[in-house]
Amino acid sequence: MGSEWPLAAPKDLSQSTVVLALRVRRRLQPLKGRVLACGRDAACKVAWAHPRLGSFLATCGQEGNLTVWRESRTNEWEKLKEFKERKATCCSWAPHEYGLTLAAGTSDGNVTIITKNEFEAVLQTGYSSVVTAVSWGSATPFDLLDCPSKEVYKAQFVRLATAGSNGNVKVWIYTGPKEQLKEEATWSTSSPINDVAFANNPGFSCTLLACCSADSTVRIWKHANNAWREPIVLKLKSPGQKLCWSLLGNTLTVSADNAVYIYEEKDIDYWQLIE
Fold first, then answer.
1. Cα of 108 vs its chain's centroid, Å
2. How far, in Å, CA of 222 to CA of 257, rounded?
3. Dihedral (CA of 171, 172, 173, 175) sign
4. Average pLDDT for the chain
5. Rounded distance between C-alpha atoms, residue 125 and residue 104, angstroms
6. pTM score, whole prediction
7. Is pLDDT at 23 greater than 90 in this prediction?
8. DSSP secondary structure string, 89-111?
9. Based on the number of CB atoms within 10 Å of its own CB, is 198 exposed (0-12), middle (13-18) or buried (19 or more)?
10. What tens digit of pLDDT does each residue of 112-123 get?
């Protein structure tokens, strides 16, 4: 691992039209930053591509513009591609096995998947409301997928989760560009979803998916033995806004209004709040 880690965030989620890209060093040294101007569009979401693919950053603006940035030289960024009028509300990069593949949720209830060769596919999610979050799972060998027609697919697949302001969470199977996504599971909740996130899967036989809702709950679904189980529901004191899994996938951090909750799986299906 190198001595620097890249970090990016909108300077102010409510009104800033710039993204500040920083390089965080191990030792106490001054941070070197670069301001990425987003024009008149206030930046609200950022997403990094896998470092194996290079330094690529995607940003979503409150006016719906989706922009892809590339670090051409150390701490020098260029606007690689801008997708205007996409109505983008959220974005997420696919696992590196699929190259530079970006999924973006839109305010009209759809998800656009964009690849490096600029092939675009629009996923009709069936939402009648805004797509509030998207998340890619880990690339998985196909022998773990119970699908009667799996011989028509490639050697690997990946799951894509989408969430909407209508409270619905859906999981899709993605096998590559120009392949039709297949809906695997759908759940309905009673309140809008603020974020959805797959856990990292370093070779485990199960898959974990979490979502946080406006009703101050966090739901964790597990896929094991070719089936999704009923969710584990965690109750917070305030609505969760953002989810983050540990590298091993056994610790979940939930950021809420003026609070951060950290849950660790102490036993199978038992999640304990770390005080």
1. 19
2. 27
3. negative
4. 80
5. 12
6. 0.82
7. no
8. EEEEEPPGGG-SEEEEEETTSEE
9. buried
10. 888 887 666 777
